[in-house]
């Protein structure tokens, strides 16, 4: 007999210590008994879970129920109301009245609350806040110092495996101080420090490449883990308690506020002067699919996806995207080449 989905999630939050103690104790006849339930008993709670997304806040700062409901409700701008239940201080159930609202939010990525990532998952039997499905987030990673003749999707795939699973590869030629670089959409393992660099070797030629992460927040500059800041780093505190002085090996340099071919960018006008477009909520999540390239002006891009298909594309401005049978379709309009064809920031409604 399957347990109630809501009950299963609740029992997994904060009660493990109590249950472990009870398993080791001798139970009375009443305590050893069973309460027989039927599927009708769990029908309403099961339906509720199927209309829900379960969100885990990745961080060491607790999220309040009222605050997260108001904040995410304002960001998601749903057509219908939403109920939020606090399962634990970092784990929440978002119950949607409309399946369309749920699909809209679920299709987005990199949502944040209080400068901490909010990872959303659909309900499945056995889901709880410590499930491995919450151990990854998807981020764009810029790979710097790749030789021009090595900038291929195949190289991007191999470099990306050092970070983790690669979902997409984009080659960006943006010019200016930034130059050219590979850009990877990768699944970041939250149980490990973020990789800072690696080396690429071709025969006797070896080149070190550096990683920069777009929309990276809540990074510990001491241990390189996502989910806490250095002042709360347990590793640093252990060294301090043992009277050891060990310098941190990270900083703010793995972050980049500039996003190319996947976010807002800094372009140059006809005079050659840089135009720094205002950023509106630069690190907040997006309803756009991870595989959709947003407004970046006219750039030459080589793009590949998980299936390995790739082709050179000349991207201008991004047209609309629509969902059909659960899939995101891309519609791209190529802009005419003009000296002042720069990306415009997306204004709030």
UniProtKB/TrEMBL annotation:
Pfam family, one: zf-CCHC_4
UniProt keyword terms in alphabetical order: Metal-binding, Zinc, Zinc-finger
GO MF annotations, alphabetized: nucleic acid binding; zinc ion binding
Domain CCHC-type, residue spans: 220-235
Protein name as catalogued: CCHC-type domain-containing protein
Organism encoding this protein: Striga hermonthica (Purple witchweed)
